[in-house]
Amino acid sequence: MRAVIQRVKQASVTIDGKIKSSVKEGLLVFFGIEEADDEDGILWLSGKISNLRIFNDENGIMNLSVKEIGGEILVVSQFTLHASTKKGNRPSYIKAAKPEIAIPLYERFIERMKIDFGKNIQTGSFGADMKVNF
Predict the structure, then answer these.
(1) Which listed residue, of 37, 70, 107, 110, carries a Cα 20 to 30 Å from 118's Cα?
(2) Active site annotation includes 80
(3) Which of 14, 80, 85, 123 is catalytic?
């Protein structure tokens, strides 16, 4: 399981020219799953993301979580996070989980994020050709 976490002032995901989801200030999370991932990873990562103190407090020190600033979270599935580029120039995605494994884990991750974050989570659509703006 891998996540790239980006602080944003705004972010959105567009599919077929239509905005599927958008958030204002908060986090954009690119989330990738590999075959060996399990429920324990979901619990750990969701709690970590929800509570990371990466937003500035009144003194300009990164001391606040996305929850504490009243932010929002957009999670986008991203199998390319598990790309191997060791050989040649074409990435290999052999470690990325197949949809029959990845989709249920992705859905459980979203549900767990809702619990840990305490609010609804915005998402892309698993497997869609998504355009992300932030």
Answers:
(1) 37
(2) yes
(3) 80
